[in-house]
Design a protein that fits this description.
Order of helices and strands: EHEHEEHEEHEH
Number of helices: 5
Strand content: 25-35%
CATH class: Alpha Beta
Radius of gyration: 17 Å
Number of strands: 7
Structural class: alpha/beta
Oligomer: single chain
Length: 196
């Protein structure tokens, strides 16, 4: 008789991550981890993303100790500056003005906790994004249409934000949206979830 797998929980309030995880057709629930996402002094972007992904997974695992928990986080960085979710129109416009004609690295980290062993399976997937030179009118028009207030770097690549870019490169196209499904699928298969 096959082993019963633990229930799967996505530790996130992000609708983008929820929509991405639905692609894998595994049953899951979502819970908000409610953690402090502040950057530590001098913390590199990739390290911050990894720390927060683990913190989010641990926060949910503490509440649901018999579940397999997925935590994920993303930090955008350019020229040593970190860019989070702008939160409002003015901040989104300011972010895009700073990122115009620049290359930004979006570090997306994963942490999956197997409750049967207590193991933390982790991965980090960087995506390099080159923004084209943007005029103030283009930035405002884009922000008013796409309202990217809850996206690091103030651009939704899965929507109209793709028109702001010259190129992007990385190992997983879904990492830029916030949940690297190629790496996540590999981690879930390692735990025993039936994925093709």
């Amino acid at each position: 008789m096959p082993e019963t797998l633990p229930p799967l929980i996505l530790g996130s309030s992000s609708p983008y991550r929820r929509e991405l995880l639905m692609r894998l057709t595994l049953p899951f629930t979502t819970h908000s981890p409610d953690v402090d996402e502040s950057r530590l002094d001098g913390e590199p972007a990739a390290a911050q993303a990894r720390r927060l992904a683990r913190l989010k997974a641990d926060a949910i695992a503490a509440r649901f100790p018999h579940a397999c928990v997925i935590g994920s986080d993303q930090v955008a960085s350019c020229r040593g500056q970190h860019y989070g979710k702008p939160g409002n129109r003015a901040a989104a416009i300011a972010q895009l003005a700073e990122l115009s004609a620049s290359t930004v690295v979006f570090d997306t980290a994963l942490c999956v906790i197997d409750p049967r062993t207590g193991r933390h399976l982790e991965a980090s997937v960087p995506t390099e994004v080159a923004f084209r030179a943007l005029t103030p009118d283009e930035i405002e028009r884009y922000v008013d249409i796409d309202t990217p207030f809850d996206c690091a770097g103030a651009a939704k690549s899965e929507a109209l934000g793709i028109a702001l870019l010259e190129r992007l490169s990385g190992d997983d196209p879904t990492a830029l949206v916030g949940l690297p499904l190629i790496r996540l699928s590999a981690l879930l298969r390692e735990i025993g979830y039936p994925l093709p």
